[in-house]
Amino acid sequence: ELGKWTFPAVPVSPGFKNHDEELRSHAYAGLKTRKLEESKEVTDRIEYELKIIIGKGFAVYYLIVADLLAFARRAGILTTTRGSAAGSLVAYLVGITNVDPLFYKLPFERFLNPERPKAPDIDMDIADNRRDDMIAYTKQKYGEDHVAQIGTFGTMMARAAVRDVARALGHSYTTGDRIAKLIPIGSQGFPMTINRALELEPDLKALYNEDDDVREVIDLAKRIEGCVRHVGVHAAGVVVAPTPLVEWAPVQPDPKGTGKLITQYDMYSITDEYGGVGLLKFDFLGIKNLAILADAVARVQETHAIFVDIENVPIDDLKTFQMLARGETEGTCQLNGSGMTRWLKELRPTTIHDINAMVALYRPGPMETIPQYVERKHNPKLIRFVDPRMKDYLDFSYGLLVYQDDVLLTAITLAGYSWLQADALRKAMGKKIPAVMQAEKEKLLKGFVAYGKLSEEKAETLWLLIEPFAAYGFNKAHAASYGKVAYQTAYMKANYPVEYLSALLTADSGDTEQISIFVAEAKRMGVQVLPPDVNESGSVFTIVGEKKDAIRFGLSSIKNFGEGISEAIIAERKAHGPFTTLSEFLSRVGSKNLNRKSLESLIKCGALDSLSPPEGGRGILLENIETLLAFHREATALAPQDSLFGTLVTSVPLTLPTMGRPVSLLDKLVWEKELLGIYVSGHPLDAHAAIAKKAVLSISKIKEEPQPGMSLILPVLVTIVRSILTKSGEKMSFITIEDTTASIEAVVFPKLFKEHSNT
After folding, report:
1. If we measure between CA atoms, which residue out of 470, 236, 488 comes closest to residue 359?
2. 3-state secondary structure of 151
3. CA angle, 679 as apex, 675 and 685 as ends, to 5°?
4. Is 409 helix (H, G, I), strand (E, B) or coil?
5. Which residues of 2-18 are buried (b: 16+ CB within 10 A; e: fewer)?
6. Are 497 and 503 in contact (CB under 8 A)?
7. Which of 38, 203, 514, 546 would you label with 291, given CA atoms 20 to 30 Å apart?
8. Helix and strand totals (H; E) in the chain
9. How many CA atoms lie within 13 A of 514 on its CB side?
């Protein structure tokens, strides 16, 4: 039967008559776990929610999700929820959500109300390095052949359709690229179409009218626009069936060759949307910030033997709020970026509600409210409520509309809307269709006057406050959930900076630009970041030093350095202790992967500095690399197979000159950049520190908030120069420049190129 929910087969636990009774028992047991008093307010809320949940037949859904998240806690997998589910007290009590809806004043009806016919979704965010563990548990629980990830269909969007058609017709790449670049980028939820682009972009319209080839490409592209182009895998969706999945939907292997099965129905057809199959869908979305938090917590446990209960850290930590007020937000979740940082410095947050509000407000539309929020926080005399009845739900936000829920509650409280009508208002506002918006405006204004007894002037004032939220208002429960994660990252950075920074570096180890930013942040905080070392490095970034106050690059961070040799070095060191001499290192690491290329990489990046001659170490080793390789071959060939330590003293003595070619700091920096992706021992621009201090912006800040037309002097390093000839035969260049924070591409036009061609 289509359009009806079908749950997986979940037996009722022993001691209970049915799932409804089981959920009720777990909810009341959760009061002790969550340390909540069993007051009348609390029990009334529990009973109210249970009546709706049970009445709609969703008790089993709650139990299934609670079981999945209980497994996550047992397995040490950090999770949070997205969307409106955090408004449910029962969900909080049974361990589904992580924020107390009573403390944050989150309405349950935004998630589930008696009038809402559609089943709710509880979207789970999972530490991205543990998502596969969650899917594996789901398969173990419900059956390998009952579970699959959901397939998606990638469609021909406007730009892709143009490029594909141009290529298929045999035109040059530049033809398709020229047309595609004239098509504007659509906004989130409102993708750009070719017809709309022709209306919006005069240059595209002119090209279409004047060029026969362009007209042919665009006309054909219109015909394939929106057609399915390829099959993919949904980023989060996992579906569970009560019997083998092939009885409900066709399946196929993942096109990427992972060996996993995916459904051939998309998420709308596989669930109950639009009369679909109605199978239960879970959203397991991998989130990097949760993995970083979990890693940082584990590092604190390892280095200081302190267990940080990240779900229950104090939400009034002074160090955390002081750090945010200073604008030291780099590496935090949701709170970084120059724009957000500037507002945080002005706001000087002191409560978790300030964090939640900034998470919600820093987006188009609601952003206009930030200055008033800041002013009212610092001057309570400015706090005003358009109507006193609004104080119940706007007290945390100083009388301002901050969340989508504030708009809905205003419609309900002052215009007499039901939750179903308020939800319809939310959807209509999200579509941004002028005619629909006008109709909703008229309906709402009538409600304000007739039901709320407001004057027409006051009703109009309220509409002007509501309108900026049209498509961008943020769900309050979602803001509370993500505000908590944002606060947790800030808390870890403020209280355990070395552990948090090392977790950040590890998570972004493949992104040299991010690594540069985090290394610069570590330097600003007085945390030393050291190059790799065969005696101290792990595979990833490791905390080192007697006081555990420095971070060392991992061996797997070295470019052109195989995973096998990295593992061999670490395994040998763990098994038989540190390497005390260079000859011992070459004797004990018997891996055949310790060849010229890998040994040269170790030398150049500084990983063998602690075992090298004190004078001219890297230079001597590089000049004598053949001697080192010959020693390694001879030593490992002579090593007994069952020797505990390998051959520590061989018949082949390792003798190296005491003096060699001196290696300059610049040589070291060049090698570090080549092998680690960034400069570690310093930066070539350090020689120009006096000029750098005068710079008002850095490249990373410019990239975050471009300011067209702005002129500034900025000391940079030119790293790539790509010269071309223009159509008129003049030379110009595309160059890549960098400072200590990031890199960016710049253009040197012909006139400037001519003036500086010899530079």
Report:
1. 488
2. strand
3. 145
4. helix
5. eeeebbbebeeeeeeee
6. no
7. 546
8. 34, 13
9. 15
Residues recorded for the chain = 759
Collapsing DSSP to helix, strand or coil, 365 comes out as coil
Contact 354, 347 (CB under 8 A): yes
Q: Are 270 and 263 in contact (CB under 8 A)?
A: yes
CB-side neighbour CA atoms (13 Å) of 182: 22
Give the Cα separation of 163 and 153 in Å (integer).
19
Q: Name the amino acid, one letter, at 529.
A: V
For residue 510, which of 720, 678, 671 has the smallest C-alpha distance? Answer: 678
Rounded Cα distance between 123 and 69, Å, is 11
Rounded to the nearest 5°, which phi and psi values hold at 285? Answer: -95, 125
Return the closest-CA partner of residue 114 out of 37, 52, 164, 24.
52
User: How many whole angstroms separate alpha carbon 457 and alpha carbon 382?
Assistant: 21
d(CA 270, CA 138): 18
> Burial of 389 by CB count in 10 Å (0-12 exposed, 13-18 middle, 19+ buried)?
middle
Alpha carbon separation from 48 to 24, 184, 424 (Å, rounded): 12, 49, 23
Q: Which residues pair with 228 in a beta bridge?
A: 155
Q: Is the CB of residue 327 less than 8 Å from the CB of residue 345?
A: yes
Q: Which two tokens stand for residue 252?
A: 């196929």
Cβ atoms within 10 A of the Cβ of 656, count? 18
| Residue (of 411, 412, 417, 387) closest to 399 by Cα position | 387
Distance, CA of 476 to chain centre: 20
* CB contact at 8 A, 324 and 351: no
- Give tens-digit pLDDT for 9-47: 899 999 999 999 999 999 999 999 999 999 999 999 999
Least Cα distance to 228 among 158, 153, 150, 151 occurs for: 153
Per DSSP (E only), the strands in 472-598 are 528-530, 542-544, 550-552
Q: Mean pLDDT across the stretch 275-282?
A: 88
Chain segment 201-247, per-residue pLDDT in tens? 998 999 999 889 999 999 999 999 999 988 999 989 999 999 999 99
Helix, strand, coil share of the chain (percent; to 5) = 55, 10, 35
Nearest to 396 by CA among 353, 355, 366, 431: 353
pTM: 0.87
| DSSP H or E run through 734 | strand 731-738
- Round to whole Å and give the CA distance between 759 and 753: 9
